[in-house]
């Protein structure tokens, strides 16, 4: 940070070199060893000392630091003009994954100084530049863009679109573009809408994806503001620009999928394109993408097998709606926050209840109960009818003989009343056998 003046720290070469020296000489940290050797080689903030620099770089290389191995090749190439040793170290560093080493090997072939090779070999050079570009090397990427735009090599046929994409990747690393986006963000946070709109338009039109999505968001939030400056729907325009980028976020695909789902203005509804956008968001691990695909399935739209194959869903579930529903909702739940209730968990619970109820009501037991329940009901009604009829006949016969039959509890009450009214069967009353009463008579 001190060497480059980054992350809010002012540039201070002297202090930076002190920290490099401390890390290298005291801790023997391989990164510090390499960094300190570079400043010693170049004399940046310290007196130049190639001998000490070479020793430190060899020590960092012995610790397996790829940049130090590449640095040794750079040393032999620039200071010793020993291309054999330079190639040896660069091949070793390339095997360790160094993009700089790949680029340097390409330079050897391009300059025609590669050991054992005769003359310049642009095809071999282009191959090494391509390897470096794939690992993010800026100069290698520019060389590839040049090869694609000219089309002079068999391995790089003319392809202007690829040339633009490679060059665009380098252009987006330009710090000045980052300053413009930063100004737009600052204006947005300060609610200076017109200023934010201006900066985001400038950066979005250069092809910066983050500026395009931010501008689309402003167009969505502030339609009254943006309609004064755009004759077309800027929300759709810049979200569509965003998804054409290799770095587009998943929510941009969801937005465009919604545009195709609902349809508006001059765009008709297109569920096929909507499903493609949702599937792309799902491929990026967005739970909403899986949820939206499941909703399309609920509405009766058959999701193409090609999309399901891209999502790596078992082909046996493609034609079985319930299984496909469950798979989509389960993935939705897996990619969402499982610590709280969310639409995915609720939808999955509802689906499982539906499956359970279907299994219950379509079982053999329920089938037979459903078949025989009318007969059982009729038999019960007939039995109840005959029971009530029998009771009614008994009541009628009792009335004919002198009174109704006693109800529950009446026979015992009647018998107890009769006992109270009738004398003792032995001819004695209760008082005659009471000792107290007999003594009173005497």
From TrEMBL:
Region (Disordered): 399-442
SMART domains in alphabetical order: SEL1 (SM00671)
Domain of life: Eukaryota
Basic and acidic residues composition-biased segments: 407-422
Comp. bias (Polar residues): 433-442
Pfam families: Sel1 (PF08238)
Alphabetical keyword list: Membrane, Transmembrane, Transmembrane helix
Membrane-spanning parts: 365-386
PANTHER family: PROTEIN SEL-1 HOMOLOG 3
Stated name of the protein: Protein sel-1 homolog 3-like
Organism: Thamnophis sirtalis
């Amino acid at each position: 940070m001190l060497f480059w003046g980054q992350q809010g720290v002012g540039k201070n070469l002297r202090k930076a070199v002190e920290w490099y020296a401390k890390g290298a000489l005291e801790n023997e940290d391989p990164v510090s060893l390499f960094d300190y050797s570079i400043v010693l080689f170049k004399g940046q903030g310290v007196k130049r000392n190639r001998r000490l620099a070479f020793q430190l770089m060899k020590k960092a290389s012995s610790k397996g630091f790829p940049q130090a191995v590449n640095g040794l090749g750079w040393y032999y190439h620039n200071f010793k003009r020993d291309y054999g040793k330079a190639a040896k170290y660069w091949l070793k560093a390339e095997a360790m994954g160094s993009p700089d080493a790949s680029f340097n090997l390409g330079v050897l072939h391009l300059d025609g100084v590669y050991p054992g090779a005769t003359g310049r070999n642009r095809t071999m050079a282009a191959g090494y530049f391509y390897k470096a570009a794939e690992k993010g090397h800026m100069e290698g990427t520019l060389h590839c863009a040049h090869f694609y735009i000219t089309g002079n090599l068999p391995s790089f046929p003319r392809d202007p679109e690829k040339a633009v994409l490679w060059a665009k990747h380098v252009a987006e690393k330009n710090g000045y573009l980052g300053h413009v986006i930063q100004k737009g963000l600052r204006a947005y946070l300060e609610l200076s809408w017109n200023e934010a709109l201006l900066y985001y338009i400038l950066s979005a039109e250069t092809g910066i994806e983050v500026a395009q999505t931010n501008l689309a968001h402003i167009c969505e939030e502030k339609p009254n503001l943006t309609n004064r400056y755009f004759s077309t729907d800027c929300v759709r325009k810049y979200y569509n620009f965003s998804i054409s980028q290799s770095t587009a976020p998943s929510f941009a695909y969801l937005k465009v999928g919604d545009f195709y789902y609902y349809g508006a203005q001059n765009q008709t509804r297109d569920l096929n394109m909507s499903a493609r956008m949702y599937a792309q968001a799902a491929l990026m691990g967005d739970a909403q993408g899986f949820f939206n695909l499941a909703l399309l399935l609920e509405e009766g739209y058959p999701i193409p097998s090609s999309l399901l194959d891209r999502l790596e869903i078992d082909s046996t579930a493609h034609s079985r709606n319930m299984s496909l529903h469950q798979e989509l909702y389960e993935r939705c739940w897996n990619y969402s926050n499982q610590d709280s209730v969310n639409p995915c968990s609720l939808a999955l619970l509802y689906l499982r209840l539906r499956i359970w109820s279907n299994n219950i009501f379509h079982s053999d037991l329920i089938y037979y109960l459903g078949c025989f329940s009318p007969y059982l009901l009729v038999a019960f009604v007939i039995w109840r009818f005959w029971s009530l009829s029998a009771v009614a006949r008994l009541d009628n016969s009792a009335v004919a003989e002198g009174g109704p039959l006693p109800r529950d509890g009446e026979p015992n009450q009647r018998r107890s009343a009769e006992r109270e009214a009738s004398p003792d069967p032995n001819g004695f009353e209760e008082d005659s056998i009471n000792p107290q009463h007999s003594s009173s008579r005497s």
